[in-house]
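Q: How would the structure tokens look for this protein?
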Amino acid sequence: MTEKQSPTLDATGKPLVLEDKAAGPRHLRGIFALAITTAAIGLSLFQLYTAGISPLAAIYQRSIHLVLIMILIYALYPPCKAAARDRFDLFMIADFILILLCVVIGAYIWTQFGAIVERQGDWTRTDVVMGVIALFLVMEATRRVIGFFMAAIAIIFLLYTYFGPWMPDLIAHKGYSIERIVTTLYLTTEGIWGLPTGVAATFVFVFILFGAFLERSGGGDFFIDLAYALTGRMTGGPAKTAVLASGFMGSVSGSAVANVVTTGSFTIPMMKKVGYKPHIAGAVEAAASTGGQIMPPIMGAGAFLMAEFTNTSYLYIVKIAIVPALLYYLSVLFFVHFEARKEGFKPLPREDLPKVGETVRKGIHFLLPVFILIYVLCNNYSPMMAGFVAVVSTIATAMLRKSTRLSFRDILNGLEAGAKSAVMVSIACGCAGIIVGCVSLTGLGLKFSSLVVSLSGGSPLLAIMLIGLASLVLGMGLPVTASYIVLVILAGPALMDLGLPIIVAHMIVFWYSQDANVTPPVSLASFAGAGIAGASPLKTALASWKIAKGLYIIPIVMAYRPLLGNGPVGEVVLTMIFTTIGLVAFTSALERFLFQALSLVETALMALAALALFWPDNRFSTAGAVLLAILAARQWLATKTKRREAKA
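A: Here is the predicted structure in token form.
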């Protein structure tokens, strides 16, 4: 690494810029730079080895991964702005001590795990001390890279877990001792070594590495040029391509996060190059990838369970799921379009666009890793193995032509860049593990699930909204499929008691069980998108939550209108039309843009039109469509007048 290089790169090899952090990264020199480069390369090689050659038990895989990530953080990110960036100082001595502590808390797990398992519940003082150090290290590393906000959320959950008996009655619990909290979060896979860290330590990392190698070999430029050639004449074309690609891949991958890191390796750099802000690019990919779990023909695992629970065929589930899934993707496309128009992203002139034939001729060999990746995923290999194959095939493919051939130094640089790109998402997932562990320990998820249903007071609408809230809390501590199972057992009967057909009740719960992928504070798909985009995880999560609003609106329509095909053909068609137009109005109001920026009054009227279009009465829906048409005509005429005046 040269003296002038930034030590932190994104998946494209560009300097990684993080917001709301304690300070910028250090510019290491000499032996310090060599040591951190060696650690980064070692992390990447470890990840590749465990992904494709010899997997490790979960606790070892996750702990080694997170310890190495924290070593990178404490070496690269000083604690405050006062710390030096380019010379040795007292802060660096303190960080060296923290690095040693990272090794100690990792080594304690690696060397004592057998004894730890044998004395479950009979914890020693050393266990507790090590756990306290580990929690501090994770939260301090989170503060340095992401900012204080996420670390503060983890602290709040820790305080809630300890002070349970003094909480309000609705959320009170028996409380847990410091020993119980610390050992659960450190010595089991229910805390910092839990599911979020497991996601980061397996396929997320290898796919980020895949993106780094693809960029270095020139494959990233090929896919961007190809996308420009095909969609450059459209407004926000590459982002629209990202939405469609994510839908297709998501219907195969079976995981929103795997979808993000698979297609996001291509689409996120593509969107950033067009002009989308990094957190918006990551958010679009996260929202689109989450939709893959509700898109036939291969939906999330919960769809197969739904078929069993409702005693219907999976083919029937697929058939009724197609229209809502397409509507969800339309809502994301509308957002992408309005965002592009609002930011003034113009279609590129034809003469500035690369020619399709020439682009394909120069880079067609880069399609080979993609086809191999899709083949591996479709043949039910794990996402970890798919990522490993993708990395290896990308390196091998690059060697086919002299212009894209990678030198040994290029490969080392790719390994280093991949490790440094994963810093944000990995530490975010480690901190999220603290939140997950507290939710699991206190039973907060189950408490919320039962509580919100009882608060509905017989109103299906209120019950659905409360179930959405319950699914979010459950999603902090459970995978999507587990969240669906728990929620449908607790809330499904209540929805059926309120008059909803069994298949509708289950589909609503299934949709809402997906929302934890894109909703803060624990939103793994958004974190993965942020890691590839080089953006703030929390900022990306908030943006993806906004883009994925169809995930919340469409289930409500399912409850009141025959969107699942459960009605007369004419009514079903009208529902599809009104819902589609309603999504246009809703997205326009959310973005405050149609043909031009909406005034406050126009925004309010657009929101009213959306509400009327979603309302389960065709008279209201027709009125909403008329109101939308009037607003659209007014906007179009105003835009046309401005253009005429500009020409004059």
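The chain has a mean pLDDT of 81.

Residues 618-647 form the longest helix (30 residues).

Upvote if useful.
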